[in-house]
Design the sequence.
C-alpha cells in the first residue's frame, strides 16, 4: 500500500521551479509531451495548482509531465524508501507474514492449478514474493533496481537475484514461464519498451501478472488530487482500459482485470501515514491510534487500496495501440 505521500511529493517538486520554468530554454513543454499510450500532445493538467503535474490525455491515459529527473528519482529510491515499506533486513514477522499472504493470494490468479516452473519477479525488493513462490514449489528469480533491497534479497536467494534493470539483467529469450510486476509498471519511464523486454524473456504463451494503481478506482475518484497513489515516483497511472490497450499493443492477450486487495494490519497502516502525513488522513489516524486496542491493530485485514490485478498471456505480435 502506498502511503499518503504528501512529503514525498514536496521533497521532489518544491524548489524545482514552476512547470513552465522547467520546460523552458527550447525544451519540449509538458503540454507538448507525447502521451505514452497514443503519442498525442496536448494532455491537460488534471488538478491545476497541484504541485504534482498529473496530466490526462484525450485517450484516457494519465501520466506525469514533466517527470522527475534521474537525480530526483535516485533521491526518492534511497534506503529510507524501503524502510518506509517495512523492508529493513530485520523484518518484523508480522510485516513479513502480511506481505507474503498478499503475494500468495495474488499469485493464485495465475498459479492455481498450474504446473510450477520458473517465475521472475521484476522489482523484487527484499524477496517476500520470491519466498512465497518458492514455498509454493516455483523456481523463483528476482531483479531489483535498488542496491539496498537487492542485497537483502541476495542474502536469501543468492545469484537468482540480479541488481539493475530488467534490460540490464540479460536473461535468455523465453526463459520464464511467468513474470510478475507487483507495484512496478507505474514506476517505469518507458512502459512500451519495458513490456517488450518482458515479452522477450517469457516463453510463448507465458503468463504475466501485474498489480498496479487503478486511476479509475473508487478511492481515486473520491480522493481526487489527494489519492495516495499520486506520488512523484509514479510516472504513469493506468485504468483497466488503458492498461489493456497497452498490453495488447505490446503483444499480450489480456485474460482478466480485478480489484487487488492487500493483507494489511492497522499498525502498519498507521506507520505509513505517520511517515507521510496528510491533512486529510492524519487527524483520523491520531484518533484511531489512541482509541483502538493493540489486538485490533495487529490483526490482518484484506483491504481494497485502489489497485487492480491484471493477468495476461504472451501472444500476438506487437502492433500500434487500438484506442477505438
Sequence:
Amino acid at each position: 500500500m502506498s502511503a499518503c505521500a504528501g512529503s514525498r511529493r514536496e521533497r521532489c517538486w518544491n524548489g524545482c521551479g514552476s512547470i513552465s520554468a522547467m520546460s523552458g530554454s527550447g525544451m519540449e513543454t509538458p503540454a507538448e509531451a507525447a502521451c505514452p499510450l497514443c503519442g498525442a500532445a496536448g494532455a491537460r493538467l488534471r488538478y491545476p495548482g497541484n504541485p504534482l503535474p498529473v496530466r490526462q490525455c484525450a485517450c484516457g491515459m494519465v501520466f506525469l509531465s514533466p517527470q522527475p529527473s534521474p537525480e530526483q528519482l535516485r533521491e526518492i529510491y534511497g534506503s529510507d524508501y524501503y524502510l518506509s515499506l517495512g523492508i529493513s533486513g530485520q523484518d518484523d514477522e508480522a510485516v513479513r507474514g502480511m506481505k507474503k499472504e498478499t503475494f500468495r493470494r495474488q499469485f493464485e490468479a495465475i498459479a492455481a492449478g498450474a504446473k510450477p516452473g520458473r517465475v521472475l519477479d521484476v522489482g523484487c525488493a527484499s524477496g517476500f514474493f520470491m519466498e512465497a513462490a518458492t514455498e509454493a514449489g516455483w523456481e523463483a528469480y528476482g531483479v531489483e533496481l535498488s542496491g539496498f533491497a537487492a542485497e537483502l534479497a541476495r542474502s536469501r536467494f543468492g545469484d537468482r537475484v540480479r541488481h539493475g534493470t530488467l534490460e540490464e539483467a540479460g536473461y535468455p529469450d523465453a526463459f520464464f514461464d511467468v513474470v510478475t510486476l507487483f507495484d512496478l509498471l507505474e514506476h517505469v519511464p518507458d512502459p512500451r519498451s519495458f513490456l517488450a523486454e518482458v515479452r522477450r524473456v517469457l516463453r510463448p504463451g507465458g503468463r504475466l501478472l501485474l498489480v498496479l494503481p487503478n486511476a479509475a478506482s473508487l478511492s481515486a475518484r473520491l480522493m481526487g488530487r489527494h489519492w495516495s497513489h499520486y506520488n512523484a515516483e509514479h510516472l504513469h497511472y493506468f485504468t483497466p482500459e488503458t492498461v489493456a490497450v497497452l498490453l495488447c499493443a505490446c503483444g499480450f492477450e489480456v485474460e482478466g482485470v480485478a480489484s487487488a486487495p492487500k493483507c494489511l494490519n492497522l499498525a502498519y497502516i498507521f506507520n505509513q501515514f505517520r511517515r507521510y502525513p496528510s491533512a486529510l488522513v492524519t487527524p483520523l489516524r491520531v484518533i484511531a491510534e489512541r482509541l483502538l486496542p493493540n489486538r485490533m491493530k495487529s490483526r490482518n485485514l484484506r483491504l481494497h487500496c485502489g489497485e487492480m490485478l491484471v493477468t495476461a498471456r504472451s501472444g500476438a505480435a506487437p502492433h500500434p495501440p487500438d484506442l477505438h
Observations:
- The CA atoms of residues 211 and 309 lie 5 Å apart.
